[in-house]
TrEMBL record:
Keywords: ATP-binding, DNA damage, DNA repair, DNA-binding, Hydrolase, Metal-binding, Nucleotide-binding, Stress response, Zinc, Zinc-finger. HAMAP family: RadA_bact. The gene is radA. Gene3D superfamilies: 3.30.230.10, P-loop containing nucleotide triphosphate hydrolases. The lineage of its organism: Bacteria, Bacillati, Actinomycetota, Actinomycetes, Pseudonocardiales. A motif (RadA KNRFG motif) lies at residues 258-262. It holds the Pfam family ChlI. Plays a role in repairing double-strand DNA breaks, probably involving stabilizing or processing branched DNA or blocked replication forks. DNA-dependent ATPase involved in processing of recombination intermediates, plays a role in repairing DNA breaks. Stimulates the branch migration of RecA-mediated strand transfer reactions, allowing the 3' invading strand to extend heteroduplex DNA faster. Binds ssDNA in the presence of ADP but not other nucleotides, has ATPase activity that is stimulated by ssDNA and various branched DNA structures, but inhibited by SSB. Does not have RecA's homology-searching function. It comes from Saccharopolyspora rosea. SUPFAM superfamilies: P-loop containing nucleoside triphosphate hydrolases (SSF52540), Ribosomal protein S5 domain 2-like (SSF54211). This is DNA repair protein RadA.
Amino acid sequence: MPAKNTRAARPAFRCADCGHEVAKWVGRCPNCQAWGTIDEAAPARPALAKVTAGAPSTPARPIAEVDLDSARAVSTGISELDRVLGGGIVPGAVVLLAGEPGVGKSTLLLEVAHRWASGASPGPSLYVTGEESAGQVRLRAERTDSVHPQLFLGAESDLSAVLGHVDAVRPGLLIVDSVQTVQSPEAEGSPGGVTQVRAVTTALVALAKERGLPVVLVGHVTKDGAVAGPRVLEHLVDVVLHFEGDRHSSLRMLRGVKNRFGPADEVGCFEQRDDGITEVPDPSGLFMNRQEQQVEGTAVTVMVEGKRPLLSEVQALVTPTQMTMPRRAVSGLDSARVSMMLAVLDKHGSIRTGDQEVFAATVGGMKVTEPAADLAVALAVASSRLSRPLPSDLVVVGEVGLAGDIRRVTGVGRRLAEAARLGFDRALVPPDSGPLPKEVRATEVRNIGEALRLVRPRRKS
């Protein structure tokens, strides 16, 4: 008789970022070179040599006969969230909301649960917290006026208990805060580990698809801003949202990263207040400081976040210094692109800043990384350097190349339409920008020299 293989299955160690497996624990993943991402995982089961056919759960039907009513999006009661989700949350969808600690994820979802419970949505809402006690969540609900009889609250960290709450309440919306704190008794490892997070998410996804129950999961993020846990977590869910914001600013941005039911590049705007989080349907006013008098060192541009045009004010301060190495300080802008604009102004615009300190920032805490803001940065620096303010009714849009040329950007017409709605009459745009609204007098500039004519002092004849 052949000898039996009595050697037990050895535990495997898997990278949480890339999924690479190694035989023993190491501090750095050999595949993706990430540190501290190797965790112990359950040994993989041997693959079956042959799979027998089984009875399908539901018979296959022609696609034209599939019912659409059960898959139509239901409004959450918050228009900015519906905008990012693509009209609302789809029954049976699993949404992962990630964000840094203290950004307001729990406050936002508590408001979502309250709006769902108080609206015409099917069924009550169930909010399960694994990080706080029920009393702590009730205190927050009292502060934000989110108490409702159809809003049920449970404080559980065991997956079986969470499923028991679902059977008892039969909610129309389930919120789990957070997926890293819930533990499955059938999986190995500690809560928040690779095996536990995968098992919990898989069980909740199966629950959502089986009952048509929309589920919202709160996820932690790493120091790099990525969703904590195994990379497969983002593939299991239907929608991945990132809730972003600066602690020193009240602005909060909800950004769609993945969406199987709508656009994946949409952005929603919120404002953090003492009484909770409120929607900001027209956020352009947060990023601007309209003044009656012209101010030097200020330029207004139009950014596009997702599909939403937003006006943003860029400010620059150029001042002489006695230091050998002048300072360069940037806030809300890409420091590398600001340095490029200073070099372009020096080379092609004769705007010398080598012996000057340069400070550049945006208004309202907005982070601007789009190349369409290059021209605004360049003109703001030139305006401060020459002490010549730009016209208060002017917006500038365009990417500046290293040769000093102004390059085209996408959606110029949509950007200028938003500027016209807010009262701007003039614009500097790249050449061949397509059809533009008639409400704005657009001037095409081909290079940085033509744009600088606005701020250079006129020569006396």
